[in-house]
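Technical annex B. To support the medicinal chemistry partners, we prepared a structural model of the target in complex with zinc ion, based solely on the information shown next.
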Amino acid sequence: MAHLEANVAVPEIPFDERVRLPAARTAVVVVDMQNDFAHPRGALFGEEAERAIPRIAEVVERARAAGARVVYTQDWHGEDDPEFAVWGEHARAGSWGAEIVDALAPHEGDEVIRKLRYDAFYGTPLDHRLRVLGIEELVIVGTVANICVLHTAGSAALRHYGVTLVEDAVGALDPFDQAATLRQLTFLYRGRVTRAEGLSFDAS
Ligand code: ZN
């Protein structure tokens, strides 16, 4: 007998054509769009991450234009990080691989949070910064879907932030991982899923 069913059906996943969020209380969180994940010469390059760059740029530009905050997370590992045993060396502190890709370089006034694990809240000042800024809603984009994106989105929801995931601005390693991410996000964490074109910010 097989360990798993050969064909696993994807359950219905709620989708919002339009999501409108209050600019003053919303931050776009750009997860780990660093050379090691999103540049062809990166140590853990994923094509889907690179492909998501234009959609991420679109979301970020719209947020800035409306006055919403933009927060970047940056995977940032020391010499003997235990994650290297799992993934090999990547995002080493201060390296080219750890830099955010040129096309999405942070602007003056954006927040950049260096993170230790998949969950960008773990051991970082992210929650503190968001609360100081009066942020209640997070729009999550970036990579990798079922790893740092999902752990960060879930951790945000557990802290009572509203979470919106922009499905065409997320890099997944394969379609199963993308589906699993959207399922967890909507079913477990009660987040919303939309696409870049459906997202807008209310400036008032
Ligand atoms: Zn890492």
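Notes passed to the chemistry partners:
The first strand starts at residue 19 and ends at 22.
Residues 26 and 152 are 16 Å apart (CA to CA).
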